[in-house]
Amino acid sequence: MAVAVMCGEWLVTASGKSLTAVHTRENREAFGFDCSQVEQKPKDAAACDSNREEGAEEKGSDAVLPVEKGSDAVLAVAASPSGRLLVLTDDRKRLLLLSSQPTWHLLSCRWVVRRCTALAFSPDEECVWVADKSGDVYSFSTTHTHTPGDLRLGHLSMLLALVVTADDRYVITADRDEKIRVSLKLAPHNIQSFCLAHTEFVSTLFVPPRHPDRLFSGSGDGTVKLWEYATGKRLQSCDLTELLNQDETDERVCIKRLSSSPDGQHLAVLCERLPRLQLFEMKTGSEVTPTQCLTLPQSPLDTTFDPQGRLWVLLDDQQTPVLLYTHTSQCWEQCDADQPDLKRVTEGLHTHSLPLPDARLYLHQLYKAGFDNTATYRQRKEERLQQRREPSASPQPNGAKRTRALIS
Fold first, then answer.
1. Which residue in 305, 280, 306, 276 sits closest to 292, CA to CA?
2. In what order do the strands lie in the sheet with 302-305?
3. Predicted pLDDT at 36
4. CATH number at residue 101
5. What is the model's pTM?
6. Cis peptide before 102 (omega within 30 of 0)
7. pLDDT tens, 18-45?
8. Residue 330 — very low, low, confident or very high, per pLDDT cuts 50/70/90?
9. C-alpha span between 207 and 213 (Å, rounded)
10. DSSP 3-state assignment of 402?
C-alpha cells in the first residue's frame, strides 16, 4: 500500500519497501530509506512468531494483508504532532522509529507480535500506539527506544484504524466488525462508549483539530459519519455514493482516508478506486457541508495537507507522482507543474525512484461475503407442504369418507 503523510514541512511517501521524504519549503536534500537494509530478526525467533501467527489465523476469520509473507513492504506510517519523529512498520513485523532532526536518521528497530494495521503518536510524543491485525493494541516508548511494547487493549476482530485524542484521555479504535470503541487511555479496559452505526468495516478515523471532542469515521459502507465520541452520539452521516454519482454503477464506495487542513476547516475524503476527491467544509462542530469534488486523472493513492493548508495528492504515475491544490476564496485550484514547491517535491521523488505500489487493493478484500443458507431449505419445505396439500384437495370416493368416519 502507498502512504503520504506530512512530518513537519517534509512530505513523506512510502510505497513498497521504500520511504522518501522531501522538504516542501526549502531546497534540502531528500531522504530515502529502504526497509530491506534494516537488521533482520533472528531466525529462531522469527520462526516461532510465524508459527504463532499461523495458529492465530486458523482460529480467527480476519483477513490477511495482501502482501508477500516475509517481504519488506511498508504497512503503516505515522508522524508525530511536532514533525520531529516518524514511525513505520513493515511486513517483517519491524517497528522503525526515525527522527528528522537535525537530519534524518534511524533511532530504533523493534519487533511486534503481529503485522500492524495502524499507528498513532500520543500528543506528548512519549509513546507510539500500535494496532495489529489480530485486534491487539500495544504502546511503545519513544524515549526508551529499545524497550518492548506493552499490551494495552484488544478487540475480537481485525483493527483498521487508531487515534489518540488531543487531550490524551482516550484511545479510539475501529475494527472490521463495524465497531468504534472509545477507551480510557490510562485504563484501556474501561470503555467510555461505542460509536455504532456503520454497516461495513470502519477503515479510517480522524479527530478534527478545531473540535477535539468530535470524531469523523469512514467505512466500507460509503459513508462518513460525525460523532460526539465521549457519548457515542451520531451527529451527521454523509453518503459518498450519492455525492460521487455512483448510483448507476455496482461499484462499492469505500472510504480510504480522511484528512484535514491544520485549521480544521477543510476535510478531504479519499475513496478507494475512484478518480475523485470530495472536499467538505466544517464551520461548526455539529455538521460538515460538501463544497467541491475534485476530478483527478486517475485514482489517487493517498492525500494529505501541509502546514500551510495546501492539499497534496499522491498518484501512481512516475512522471507526475504528486499533485498540489491550494484553496482560494472560491474553490480549490490545481497548481501548475512549474510551481516551485511542487517542482521540488516531484524532482525529489524522481531522484529516489519511488517504486510503484502493489496493484492489489486490500480494503476491498475486507468486505464479508454474504450468503443465504436457508433459501434451499425454504424451497424444499414449500414443496413438501404443497405435496401434502394436493391429496387433501382432490375429491375422494364416498366409501373412503365413510371408512374414515367409522374409524374416527
1. 280
2. 302-305, 311-314, 322-327, 332-334
3. 85
4. 2.130.10.10
5. 0.83
6. yes
7. 899 999 999 999 999 988 888 777 655 5
8. confident
9. 8
10. helix
